[in-house]
Structures are given as structure tokens and as C-alpha cells.
Design goal:
Strand content: 15-25%
Number of domains: 1
Largest sheet: 8 strands, mixed
Shape: globular
Strand order of the largest sheet: 1-2-4-3-5-6-7-8
Oligomer: single chain
Amino acid sequence: MNLTIVIKIIGVILFLYFLIVFYIYLKQRSLLYIPNIDNYDDEPLIINAKEIFIQNSEGNDLRSLFFEHPTPTKNTLLMLHGNAGPIENRFYKINKLAKYNQNILLISWRSYSGNKGEPHEQGLYDDALSAIKWLQNNAISIEDIVIYGESLGTAISIEVSQNKPFKGIILEAPFTSMIDAAKYHYPYLPVSLMLKDKYLSKDKIHNLISPIFIMHAKGDDIVPFWMGEKMFDLANEPKKKYFIDEDKHLVTYDKVLMDHMDKFYNLLNINE
């Protein structure tokens, strides 16, 4: 094979590579944010929660659910879900978490659960801050709020919690950064240069001043387990962890998990 043919082959390969890079660059947000997938076993809502709409700074309504505990309390769990599916996919969690003496606010992101808008990093931060503002307008202070972040929601939880005295923070399947996660899934791409939404959680978690509970499945093939370990190591005390031998992304809500959750809620002085 002469040099001219070799150069042409290399040129074709490079052209195809840059074509792939360009395509993924353009489509990256549609790969990251997946509002219309329904990949959970749907469980009906068994608690008396009402549908509300929280307006973000762009004037779009965010479909949300608010559960007011039968015993009046200021303690409130704010759940920030992951990158896939509607809020209905999280009913099985809030059904279990309603046993604690707390209200629960479950919000959905812009473009999720029928909401208007396009998702992006700063936009989702704004959605979360809008939910916190809604709680504050309803006489619930920062010190009363436990923030629960699920997968992508962990990065948003960390961002909005920096240097603020929240009552507690729960992180399920946290990742170190979206750059690290993208490198894991697309090792052949220059993701550091391509990514629009970087979610640099590992650079922020040291700014959290609230008790932290981190959960992660060791067989997670979406957010690798080492990321959860790393985030736990970087977190300030007091902190607790629940690392389970499961081959799934999100942990199973069984008795073992709830026993660990009980210990964390005891740390927060929130009873059943």
C-alpha cells in the first residue's frame, strides 16, 4: 500500500470521526435529558399529595406534587429527580419517605412531565431555586429543608446547597462531574471540549455544610460506583453512606435501605 492511499484512508477516518464528534456535539442535550422515557415500574401514589405548579424565573410552570404531613411540621423534603422520566416514576420513593414527620415537595424539571422549556444546566439550577423560593414563601426556611437528589439531581442539589444551612442532603447515585461521566460512556470523544453542561459536583461538594447521606449501587453501569465513593470521601462530616451490592443504577427501596434512612433521619432529629 503506497503512502498516498494511506493518507487518503487516514483522511477518511478523521473526516468520519469529526463528523461523529460534530453530530454528538449538536445532539448532546437530547442524549443527556430524556424526559419522555418511562423505565420504572409504576407504583400508584398512596399518600394524599396535591398537584401544584411552581413558576420558574422564565415564567414557565413546573408540575409538582406537594404532600403536607397530617401532623403540622416545617420539616420538608425537596426531591430533585434524575435525567429520565416523569415525576410519576418517583411515587414509590415518596410513598416510603412519607413515614417521616415531614412534608414532601417533588418537582419536575423544565420540559419534563409536560412542562414547557428546554433543559440545560443553568436552567435546572433555576428550577430548583424556584422550588426553594416557593417553600420559603410558604413559611418553610432553609433550615427546615432536606434536599434529595437522584442521579442528575445530585449535581443540582449540590449546586443549590453550597454554603447554605439545609437540614440535610441525600444524594442517590452521585457523579463527580458530567465530564467524568461522559468520559466513562464515550472514552473516544474529547468530552472536556464538547460538553455544554459540565455539572462539576466534585469541585463543589466541600462547600456543603449540612449532614449528608450518600447511596450508591456497586454495580451501577450508568454512574460508576467509584464516583459515589469519591463524592463520599470529598464530603464533609457529618456524613453517612449506603453502598449496596446491586447491578442497577438506583438503589432498591427495601427494608435494608430504609433502616439506613432511619439512622440518617435520626441524625437530623426527624422522627416517624
